[in-house]
Amino acid sequence: MKLYDFDGIFDEKLSEYIAKNSQKYKESEWEDVIPQLYKKFGDTPLKSIGKTPREFYAEMSDDELIKCLKAHLKQEVPVSEFLCEAIEARKLTEQLLPLLSGSENEREYAMSLIGSDDRAISIYMEMLTSCDNEDLKNRCVDYIKEKADLVIDEVLKNYQSGVEREYMLEIMSRSVVKNQKIFDILLKEFRTDIDNVPMHASYLAAYGDERALPYLLDKIDEEGISFIEYQELKYAIEALGGEYTKERDFSNDPYYEIIKSHSV
């Protein structure tokens, strides 16, 4: 399969264009001009192949597009947006799923193209609990959170078994179908994990159960809380429809001074 480095071709043409039009735009304006030129480039016929970059990929079959992506990654030829656009337009999730078990680059591109498709959520869960790459784990969590209810039983099981508990809590907090067990867990963690109050308050806010309000209000009223804890607690209270109006003095809080100095 013949591979074309369309981004490399574009960069060459862009260099020529900038050299000829260096005085035409201010530096800040080039940030808007370059994406427009790239878009136009995608619809410009290239003599070397006799068609535009978009036409080149439009003529490929579904399987050819996936093979082309894999070949680009294997041979380290830059993957252009035009190839990604063609794959996304065809909605080739089924063909992309095997790439989630492939090389690191294959996984990254497959995840970007698949997104939070229902068919990938269980695979993301497996990746989350079996890999050591924190960046990859966070990407998995971001997608799983969008469809948390699809894997909520597995999430609860992992939490109870001590598998990636913090990630499981984060996913639980995005469950749409309300579950007493989830509420009890999120509330218990908020009340017992005194070192991570802001994080657990944010989980209660995301879960959206107003029964958490009395516990949040009790916590925010404590004298020993930090300014960061206060801010997250106040946000959570307001997110659940509550209000906290008591004046508090955090002038001796080092975090308050740092935040205040940056806001001036």
Set out the fold topology.
Layout: H1 6-20, H2 27-41, H3 53-58, H4 62-74, H5 81-90, H6 93-96, H7 104-114, H8 118-130, H9 134-146, H10 152-161, H11 165-172, H12 180-192, H13 197-207, H14 213-220, H15 227-239, H16 254-263
Helix pairs in contact: 4-5, 8-9, 9-11, 10-11, 12-13, 13-15, 14-15
What does it look like?
This protein is mainly alpha-helical and 264 residues long. The protein has helices at residues 6-20, 27-41, 53-58, 62-74, 81-90, 93-96, 104-114, 118-130, 134-146, 152-161, 165-172, 180-192, 197-207, 213-220, 227-239, 254-263. The longest helix is centred in the N-terminal third of the chain and has 15 residues, at 6-20.
